[in-house]
């Protein structure tokens, strides 16, 4: 029995290389570097060379996939503009009627929702007038 105190994540790749002399390497550079570290630990020179050559080829061929050219303020501005200038249909008239003074139940049937601050101000003004008339009688 031999105890190997290593993570087993890439041990299958190491075994396959030892069996076949060749192995498919991952496309992820981080995983490739992890396999390289394991190959160095186990002193498998062929796999070390294969990993190093693959990393060199990827570093020379690959260019950055994405470059950020706009500061954050520009991104926020573009997002706000898309909300401001998108083409949307007007408000749903049925919804506006249902949420206006009285709603679908008619005036004074316990519905107190308002569609705007102006409408709420008008409602409060009418209540004050009604209250003043009742008080003066």
TrEMBL record:
GO terms for biological process: protein homooligomerization. InterPro entries: BACURD1-3, SKP1/BTB/POZ_sf, T1-type_BTB. Residues 2-51 form the Potassium channel tetramerisation-type BTB domain. It holds the Pfam family BTB_2. Coiled coil: none annotated. This is BTB/POZ domain-containing adapter for CUL3-mediated RhoA degradation protein 2.
